[in-house]
Amino acid sequence: MRLLVTGGCGFIGSNFIRYILEHYDPEFVTNVDALTYAGNIANVAGLAAQYGERYEFFHADIANADLMDELMRKHHFYAVVNFAAESHVDRSINSPQHFIHTNVVGTSVLLDAARRHGVRRFVQISTDEVYGSLGPEGRFTEESPVTPSSPYSASKAGADQLALAFHKTYGEEVVVTRCSNNYGPYQFPEKLIPLMVINALQDRPLPVYGDGLNVRDWIYVDDHCAAIVAVLLNGKPGEVYNVGADTEMNNLDLVHRILAHLGKPKELIEFVEDRRGHDRRYAIDSSKIRTELGWKPLHRMEEALPATIDWYVANREWWEKLVP
Ligand code: NAD
User: Fold this and answer.
1) Which of 79, 134, 189, 271 supports an S-S bond with 281, CB 3.0-4.6 Å?
2) Residue nearest to ligand 1 atom 12, measured at CA
């Protein structure tokens, strides 16, 4: 299987490339990444040496139609797995145009090139944030209305709709995954868990939005990677699959766990003005992928969160280059 993975120098993309090369036997994986502020070549260090010709890196913008066309013409990929995105909600509030460029235009360029060059499968990596916010009850199913709150989630929702329309219009074998919040190694330190760990390690204040009671549904990144492989191999074209590990937690509880693990005082927490349009709660019903594709999460937060914190403790040289 020849795979094109986009955004493979980011958090989930780099974990996915390592995961699929380690657990499966793709003929080769081509990683296309524009190396934005969030893309880090150190995230894939050692892969070329370890896997030789089975791994290659191509520095490019997915919205560059000529380059994507040439790449797909030359390589005869079996599948595209599209992780490339602007992914940070706060940045989307300040500069939404970058999000339209990559998340919407970039995805449409890939869908079009894949269609014209006979790529068999297209996996669009999306997010539960396209569903908007929940009250205290209920969970998102694949039938929940798509009502995004931020420019980030709106751009991801737009990409999802384009991808599903390419299936309806051209019969392209597109599958969309919508996953909850990921944690694990190599996550850029603007996101909640690495930000809190790194600030705590430096005895800096830990900024918590609003009252800290916003709830997220957490999943370890390798479980997300396994779900993507299941969808890549056996997902039904034109379908959406929610991915989640039934691990709801509010931000304050999560920050308390991080501080306790690191032996740091709660006084480091600093409540800051809430994010505009901040979704209150996300919770994912992932029964469809569990029953139809036999996937289930293998990692529990009780073990995987301390292991993740320990990774940032042990890999100081990785994050020191990224924080001001
Ligand atoms: P990330 O920000 O860590 O990585 C994004 C990668 O995309 C970076 O390497 C960046 O350089 C690359 N990129 C950005 N613009 C590009 C362009 N125009 N052309 C080529 N490459 C480009 O993001 P992440 O957290 O790894 O998320 C990956 C995907 O998973 C995103 O599509 C995101 O919406 C989705 N997702 C993330 C989460 C999460 O919790 N992080 C949850 C659900 C879904």
Assistant:
1) 134
2) 7
